[in-house]
Protein 1
Amino acid sequence: MVWAIIIVTVILLLSSPKVKGYLGEKSVSIRLKGLNEEEYKILNDVYLPTNRGKTTQVDHLVVSLYGIFVIETKNYKGWITGTEKSEFWTQTIYKTKNKLYNPLRQNYGHVMAVKELIKGVDVPIIPIVAFSDRADLKVKIEKEHVVYIPQIKKVILKYNEKKITKEQMSDICNLIQGAELKDKNVKKAHVKEIRKDVREKNEKVSKNICPKCGGELVKRKGKYGEFVGCSNFPGCRFVGK
């Protein structure tokens, strides 16, 4: 009986989004450790300030002689569909569909925070979105790197033209670490802010107000049936449930 309770508890813990996210990030951290320490510096779970007075959480930053890699990890399973410009992607598991915010857009915010921080330093910033290999990626992407976690190292190593010196690489790491918000209260405030944004967004949607531009939300018909979209389309491409 005790073992049964323990097993059920472990299963519930492993199925929680927080734990799955942690395991995905841990898997990436382990793979990144295989990079040459003389040429690549790894920073994990970095909280940075934004120019809007908020914080943004970056799963992994790889500062190298070849560029800065900004990595967002997603430990999802099932079919993942979406496009580079769509606001939401879709996770499909059998007949169940769930929406997730476009991780390319999410990672763009991280890239901008890094770019603002190292302003004046001429170095390429390369965004990478890495999914668990439990996912079946069917996204339509032209330019961005959207890969499986086991492919991350291979993608990074494709960039082999040196852009900065070791001294500059060290300076950038010091700059990022100096700006990093390490206080636990800051991290809690970050989560609280995200929840507040989601709550405010849902409140606007419930009133048929587009949370992106303030326009009116209207019902539309698409390839996969009826959906709610912004009346200011194509200027605004917000799509609700």
Note: Confidence is low (pLDDT under 50) at residues 2-22.
Protein 2
Amino acid sequence: MVHSVNNERAWDEQIILALDYQDKAEVIECLNKLDGQVRYVKVGMELCYAEGPGIVAYLKEQGLQVFVDLKVHDIPNTAKGAMMSLAKHGADMVNLHVAGGVAMMEAAREGLEQGTPAGEESPLLIGVTMLTSTSQQTMNEQILITGSMEETVATYARLAKKAGMDGVVASPLEVPAIKQVAGSTFITVTPGIRTLGSSKGDQTRITTPEKAFERGADYIVIGRSITQAPNPAEAWANMITILKEGK
């Protein structure tokens, strides 16, 4: 299923702002600049390693949904334990690397369910396919995976679904292929998002928010295009306006 960008959707529930900061003070400054417009945020390695899991609790107290992006990749027992720990902190979404294999993903799912407090809903468990900084050439020549990027990501999506994942992280460019092999309800979370005129940075497989949703993305993750804009609140509002108008 490919979403239309011309209907009335709760865009702020599907756009995840990457809080790529060194400490809580920077996070607070960013959120203040955005003046309450953001509803879903991502805590990655940089912030989580600096502040610890308490940053998740703080963000939840602010009424935000939180994607904890730590990309777990380890032996099944360790992945299970990691997810049991993560489940206790109130995250709405967590992830791991599909490359860890089906046994690891199944163990992680079990740990997540066991660690979720009674009466609460388990976080969404999402499998990372290929990082959006990875090019076709890098995948073939350095990681030594043959074939096309689309074929590889689709294969990873099949494995993730088999292992009981709720969805995968992938470039927006591969979303149609993922939906084809895993079904329209299989969640796609897409980083590598840049507003028009923004720098690519270290990403290689990128697109704009509107193009990502047109290709069927369920969630997009955007960071520097907003957080490094001269006026983040204005940049966010302009993005939402473009999505609503279907430009």
Note: The domain at 11-245 is CATH 3.20.20.70 (TIM Barrel).
